[in-house]
Design goal:
The complex is a heterodimer of chains A (about 475) and B (about 475). Chain A has about 475 residues and is an alpha/beta fold. Chain A has 15 helices and 13 strands. The longest helix of chain B has 21 residues. The chains are: A alpha/beta (about 475), B alpha+beta (about 475). At the A-B interface, α9 and α12 of A face loops of B. The structure holds zinc ion.
Chain lengths: ~475, ~475
């Protein structure tokens, strides 16, 4: 059986009809993963699905889960040496919801360590390689979740998005990546990098698959006080009103820009109402507000990894400072850098200068965003200003990787739903377009993406 | 005599709660095998998230009101980062009054026995860390064993101004506080380690020295005595007292300086992003106030307003239970309030002490019955016997008289009326004897006292 290019929904329909069974489906993706993982490095842990029959919406289909989402009895490493042997005794709420509805776990996917990174290169288990060209990065931090879907190593996957971590790799691998509204999916069990910015997201080949899975995992969770119920009912067909901020498009490389504008004329022809404005007044503060908040939260989140409960054993010399230095050395360089930045930001005397100001900026950015976008169904801008770069290329210039986040951090600061879908092609790669809605408009954003998918017909079906 | 300034930071476990502050694990950790009441949240496992135990806010508010403090309408949880093996996340979730934060409440007060008022600067909620256990002693133990059963237990921290000026006052503060806590059911005396104090002492305008982790009022007094002695000695020798944190050695009754050089404490406070602000609504405050029935002062005023004399009011208002019984009796039968006040302040409080009764019955109907028939109980000892039964939770039926005084009164009137023709010409004594005979046959000898009283009354009215 060859399921390349199949949507999850069509697979489920075939199982319903009895033409295939879940065991065959799982076998297909498992074998494909075994065959490709050496090359792509999408999985840190790959599990052979058992053949017990399971009912429920997902009918026993096995999915890929990012390795920072807790899975009971299955190693959850955050792609870090610090957690290389950590096995959670509990399931994240999103995982237990999938299991309750007949889902299985196919494996735990590679990622930037502790979700810190935009390329998928910062993993203690080696970089994930882009299925479109193995010498290039997949984008991160949900690199393995994107690569697995793009390379037919999984029908669909869960990732997490703190500043673009679902959308960036979706864009670089030519698939759909959805970051729900902040709180729309419970974070309970998602190993925290920056609590106030992140959410569990979904990566798939088709928007309809992503929407289907979103509805299965969305909703308020008593274990996550920041979670909420968003509207899950769909509106009748409507004519989308789209806003484009030109200065955001202009931040992109020329070839990206060209493909992006081409997608605009196509949807315009098909009856979308497209409005342009020149700029977003707080653009220059987006990255600094984002990194200040993210690093501050990260530095406290990661302080628990002290070698006592997690991490390889450190022989004590009796000197406490020696011990802690050794125990903390198991973090990779990017994680260390962000912990140090966060520690500095929260230090006495700097808290007001940096952290409180970043929080104030976030508030202003939120207000400005809502003011501009209200009256439209979504904002439409490119996902990544650049195409994937060669593995290793950005290491000499870390600011290059940081700058590539400029278009994706906005919805994390505003708590908005955001989705990246392929809207153009350049050589073997794709250009990702990003739809951003008001918080709570998740279904609306997904609906518009479905309509655009239909119009643009740019698809990475994994059969390149 | 040089000036001594003492300020206290009192940590109190909310022992009335069944579960921990941020998870649903049992808070009953004493005497349990290690690490049985734990979950991903209170062991700080990656990905776990705290959710606030709403009951903890209510219990904390009781203390806030008892200490006349003002709750903030909105308060926040913060992360206080420091490394210690008993702290599973390496940060403690607490509340903070700087960096844009507000604690649960501010500006309270507590009156010492000598009449001095100690200001309370703030009260906040926080989680207790786990416990480290050393087999044998700390010096000889091969391992530091960690027990997380206590991790995440709800604490309130009460921070006073440096208003106490002697060891006795510091001790009195802790004792008075302990009493106030037990007024709202937080009986810290019954739970080892439920009240722990950080004691701040400065002598003769010198730097303030913090003595950490002193348990109980008596030890607080000893710690202040020692610290004043130590600082005074240094002062006299011309050695400057440095600002530092010292540990209390309960066995040797001395404070011990921390080794190594001093450094500024750096806790890197930041708002806890996983917890929404704590909102104190009017409705919540009313609910809590209804549960505690206000402060002693409020109780006192209410009783005095009922027309009860000050001495009785003071006695009843000082005991939460007596007051609650008084209120209930008043609710059942307002006319009994004076009698209830008398009996509660005298007989019942005597009985509670005499038989070490910890809690009075919730159901006051037995007491109401006793009080309604109080005048017809033949003597004081019998009355006390009845009261003792009620206090001990037994069912009370005042059986010595079949009927209530009111009914007896009605019946006496009836008997007099029925026999009016027969007695109208008899002289008073004869009349009295005749009617008494009928009444005793009807109500029994045991009611003689009340029958005599009632008959005398009725006859005097019909004369
Ligand atoms: Zn727990």
């Amino acid at each position: 059986m060859n399921l390349e290019g199949y949507s999850l929904l069509s697979i489920l329909k075939e199982i319903e009809r009895g033409s295939i069974n879940a065991e065959d489906v799982n076998d297909f993706y498992y074998k494909k993963s075994l065959q490709l993982n050496d090359k792509i490095n999408a999985y840190i842990t790959l599990l052979k699905p058992d053949d017990k029959k399971i009912n429920g919406n997902l009918k026993g289909i096995a999915l890929a889960i990012k390795d920072n989402i807790s899975t009971k009895g299955i190693k959850t490493t955050c792609a870090s040496k610090m957690l290389e042997s950590y096995v959670p005794p509990y399931d994240a709420t999103a995982v237990s919801k999938l299991k309750e509805q007949g889902g299985r776990i196919l494996g735990k996917t590679n990622m930037d360590e502790f979700a810190m990174g935009s390329s998928g290169e910062n993993s203690a288990f080696g970089p994930t390689r882009n299925p479109l060209n193995n010498d290039y990065v997949t984008g991160g931090s949900s690199s393995g979740s994107a690569a697995a879907v793009a390379a037919n190593m999984a029908p669909i996957s869960l990732g997490s998005d703190t500043g673009g971590s679902v959308r960036a790799p979706a864009s670089f691998t030519g698939i759909v990546g959805f970051k729900p509204s902040y709180g729309a999916v419970s974070r309970y069990g998602l190993i925290a990098y920056a609590n106030s910015l992140e959410v569990i997201g979904i990566l798939g080949k088709y928007t309809k698959d992503v929407k289907f899975l979103f509805k299965l995992i969305a909703g308020k969770d008593p274990l996550d006080s920041t979670s909420l119920n968003v509207e899950l009912n769909e509106k009748e067909q409507f004519k989308p009103k789209i806003l484009v901020i030109k200065s955001f498009v202009e931040l992109s490389k020329d070839e990206v820009k060209k493909e992006f504008y081409r997608s605009i004329s196509k949807i315009d022809e098909e009856g979308f109402e497209v409005k342009f404005i020149d700029s977003f007044s707080l653009t220059e503060y987006l990255l600094s507000a984002y990194y200040t908040i993210a690093c501050a939260e990260a530095s406290t989140n990661l302080s628990r990894y002290d070698g006592i409960r997690y991490g390889p054993k450190v022989e004590s010399t009796g000197n406490w400072r020696d011990y802690i230095t050794k125990a903390r050395s198991f973090f990779g360089p990017e994680v260390k850098a962000r912990i140090m930045m966060g520690t500095f930001i929260l230090s006495a005397g700097y808290y007001e200068t940096y952290y409180l100001r970043a929080l104030q900026l976030r508030k202003l950015i939120r207000q400005e965003f809502e003011k501009i976008v209200r009256g439209y169904d979504a904002l439409y801008i490119p996902t990544m200003p650049v195409l994937p770069w060669r593995i290793g290329e950005a290491i000499e210039d870390p600011k290059m990787a940081y700058a590539s986040d400029v278009l994706t951090v906005l919805p994390n600061l505003t708590g908005s739903p955001a989705l990246s879908l392929p809207v153009g092609r350049i050589r073997e790669f794709f250009v990702g377009g990003q739809l951003i809605g008001l918080r709570g408009d998740d279904i609306k954003v997904l609906k518009i993406a479905e309509m655009m998918e239909e119009i643009l017909k740019v698809k990475n079906d994994g059969r390149n | 005599m040089e000036e001594i300034k003492v300020g206290l930071e009192v940590h109190v476990q909310l022992v009335t709660l069944k579960t921990k502050l941020f998870c649903s694990c049992s808070s009953d950790y004493r005497g349990k095998p290690p690490n049985v009441n734990i979950c991903p949240v209170c062991t700080g496992l990656p990905g776990s998230m705290p959710t606030l135990n709403k009951r903890a806010v209510e219990e904390a508010l009781k203390v806030v009101f008892m200490l006349n403090a003002q709750p903030y309408a909105t308060s926040y949880f913060f992360r206080k980062t420091y490394f210690y093996p008993d702290l599973p996340k390496n940060f403690q979730i607490t509340q903070y009054d700087k960096a844009g934060g507000y604690p649960l409440a501010h500006d309270g007060s507590l009156k010492l026995t000598n009449g001095k008022v100690v200001r309370i600067e703030r009260i906040h909620l926080e989680e207790d860390p786990g416990r480290i256990y050393y087999e044998g002693s700390r010096a000889t133990a091969k391992y530091s064993l960690i027990d997380y059963n206590r991790s995440g237990i709800a604490l309130i921290e009460i921070v006073t101004a440096p208003d106490m000026s002697s060891a006795e006052e510091a001790r009195d503060f802790v004792e008075r506080l302990t009493t106030i806590l037990s007024d709202v059911g937080i009986n810290v005396r019954d739970y080892e380690g439920a009240l722990r104090v950080d004691v701040n002492v400065s002598y003769a305008g010198g730097e303030r020295v913090e003595v950490k982790n002193v348990t109980g009022a008596a030890s607080v007094e000893k710690a202040v005595v020692y610290e004043v002695f130590r600082q005074k000695t240094m002062h006299e020798k011309g050695i400057k007292v440095v600002r530092e944190t010292r540990a209390w050695d309960e066995k040797r009754r001395i404070t011990i300086g921390s080794r190594g050089k001093e450094f500024e404490e750096e806790y890197r406070y930041m708002p806890e992003p996983d917890l929404p602000p704590v909102i104190i609504t009017e409705a919540l405050m009313q609910k809590v106030k209804d549960e505690i029935g206000g402060s002693q002062e409020e109780r006192y005023n209410e009783i005095v307003n009922d027309g009860i004399n000050e001495e009785l009011a003071k006695k009843i208002s000082s005991d939460k239970q007596l007051y609650s019984v008084y209120e209930k009796v008043k609710f059942y039968e307002p006319t009994l309030k004076q009698l209830a006040a008398n009996v509660l302040a005298n007989e019942i409080s005597y009985l509670m002490k005499r038989y070490s009764v910890k809690s009075l019955p919730d159901d006051v109907s037995g007491l109401v019955e006793i009080l309604q028939n109080y005048r017809s109980i033949p003597d004081h000892d019998t009355a006390v016997d009845y009261l003792k039964k009620w206090v001990e939770g037994e069912k009370v039926k005042v059986s010595l008289q079949a009927t209530s005084v009111n009914e007896i009164h009605d019946d006496v009137v009836k008997v007099v009326a029925e026999n009016y023709d027969k007695i109208k010409n008899l002289e008073y004594t004869k009349k009295f004897e005749f009617l008494m005979g009928i009444l005793i046959r009807k109500f029994g000898k045991e009611n003689k006292k009340v029958l005599v009283e009632e008959l005398t009354k009725v006859l005097s009215e019909t004369r």
